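User: Could you go from structure to sequence for me? I need the amino acid at each position, not a summary. Structure tokens:
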């Protein structure tokens, strides 16, 4: 069913999507405010961790924003958004299951237990250099943010504070904190993409 002949809610969403495509960030902010809570309840059924869910919601809104151009107006925005949310959450859970085997625990084989021999750490210096370069670029990206965005990113991802804690510490509404984090991550994403294309 076409969203143009759907519910008033779907028609409202479509108007906001069209405005957001034209560069109106406030319109996308309205979609974020409308669907943050429903998405939270949708994802918590799959990912049973409050803090992880909040970050996933932010990631999903960023992914949806980056792909607004591909949104088919014949369908409801909510249907499209939930599909993105489901796929993103499944990918997240799949990656979590691919944790590397514990190197300290002996493996059980036909000949009994055997330990895993690791290569000399000195041979991993190239990897260490790459990791250090990545860390430096990420810190540069964070430093490039406007101060109010930089502050919330540092509190969330370096100090590992909850959304509620940040809200209380900065004396700002929870919705404002989430909006700041969304915008900060969007700016970081653009900075890192530009850095990758330059390199």
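Assistant: Here is the amino acid at each position, in order:
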């Amino acid at each position: 069913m076409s969203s143009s002949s759907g519910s008033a809610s779907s028609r409202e969403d479509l108007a906001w999507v069209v405005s957001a495509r034209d560069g109106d960030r406030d319109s996308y902010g309205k979609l974020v405010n409308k669907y943050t809570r429903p998405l939270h309840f949708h994802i918590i059924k799959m990912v049973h961790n409050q803090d992880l869910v909040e970050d996933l919601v932010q990631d999903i809104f960023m992914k949806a924003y980056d792909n607004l151009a591909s949104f088919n107006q014949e369908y409801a925005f909510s249907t499209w958004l939930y599909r993105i949310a489901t796929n993103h959450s499944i990918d997240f859970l799949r990656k979590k299951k691919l944790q590397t085997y514990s190197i300290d625990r002996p493996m059980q084989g036909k000949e009994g237990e055997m330990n895993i021999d690791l290569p000399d750490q000195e041979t991993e210096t190239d990897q260490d250099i790459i990791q250090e370069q990545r860390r430096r670029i990420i810190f540069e990206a964070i430093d490039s943010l406007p101060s109010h965005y930089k502050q919330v990113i540092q509190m969330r991802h370096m100090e590992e504070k909850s959304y509620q804690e940040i809200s209380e510490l900065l004396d700002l509404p929870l919705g404002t904190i989430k909006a700041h984090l969304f915008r900060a991550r969007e700016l970081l994403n653009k900075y890192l993409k530009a850095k990758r294309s330059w390199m």
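One structural detail worth keeping in mind: The radius of gyration is 21 Å.
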